[in-house]
Design a protein that fits this description.
By secondary structure, the protein is an alpha/beta fold. The chain has one domain: Thiamin diphosphate (ThDP)-binding fold, Pyr/PP domains (Rossmann fold). Helix content is 47%, strand content 10%. The strands form two sheets. Strands 1-2-3-7-6 form a five-stranded parallel sheet, with helices on both faces. Strands 4-5 form a two-stranded antiparallel sheet. α10 links the parallel β6 and β7. The protein is globular and about 50 Å long. The structure holds thiamine diphosphate (TPP) and magnesium ion (MG). The site of thiamine diphosphate has 15 residues, from β4.
Length: 324
Amino acid sequence: MTITPTKLLSLYRDMWVVRAFEFGLEREFKRGNVPGMLHTGVGQEAVQAAIAANLRHTDAFFPDHRCHGLLVLAGTPGEKIMAELFGKATGVCSGKGGSLHSADPGVGNFGDNAVEGSMMATALGVALGFQMQGRDDLAAVIVGDGTSGRGEWHESLNLAAAWKLPVLYCCVNNGYAISTAVGDSHATANLYEFAAAYKMPAVQVDGNDIAAACDATQTAVESIRAGHGPYFIEYKTWRWQGLFSGEFRPPEEVKYWKEEHEPINMARERLLAAGNVDEAALDKIKAEVEAEVERWIAFALDSPPPDPAKATANVYVGWEVTAR
Ligand SMILES: Cc1ncc(C[n+]2csc(CCOP(=O)(O)OP(=O)(O)O)c2C)c(N)n1
Ligand SMILES: [Mg+2]
């Protein structure tokens, strides 16, 4: 581990931001306060914290459908993300974006897209722009394992490698796309092997080990900023939630990921072993984050819905659409 105990403590808090945000959101979803569908990032906290910790506001990132917590860690106020997911006027995109289509370019969030993997093509254009401007910023694109069977995945990696574009590919391999296991739909369950064929550095890392995930991300980001072209990281992790209610995975697998190899507990044990923080201090961090998330939820609940008269505003840049 190369990260310091102080940095690890800060990442521990970040992981709690992701989990507490999702737990609060799930609770409100079940109460009927969140419209649409919900995919949560519970179980993938270390991946999101590691990515957020290595980006800066002048970079661009394209989150996936489980990245709510990452949006907060990237710098958008938590209440604005929460209100967005509640479909409220005070949300970061005035309640029009929701989970999948909200963006905040001021902190580098260029938005997700419901067509899985399509941001991999968009990221190329942003990265090309950075390269032409001579900047050392990068475009990070976060995608699930399910995306790797899509044409855009391969087209994107090919062009990024050929043109040495500053793209950080963050492949969140949680083992399944909906309920299809990666190894059942690909010739390998190790997706970095595909990326390596496109002639870019490609690594696989334990995505539940925050220190390993953060180290790997830092190495990749430094390489890209130094002008060496794209970099691919496959984070091996596991999501607690399926794409629907009900458990389809074997009990021993669930036990391994939720109890024995669970990212927040692993970080907690490592912090306690390092000896400069005790149980009470770690519990306090969790409680503080949970209280903050409750404030974000209260803000979202108290916020007004969007004004129907503004439904067509800001749909296209500089072009107001008038209702027919
Ligand atoms: C191009 C495309 N095909 C299908 C879907 C429907 N869909 C939504 S999520 C999902 C599974 C995605 O799996 P993965 O990329 O592994 O992400 P995970 O949900 O496991 O985090 C699918 C097939 C979609 N949104 N876009
Ligand atoms: Mg998956």
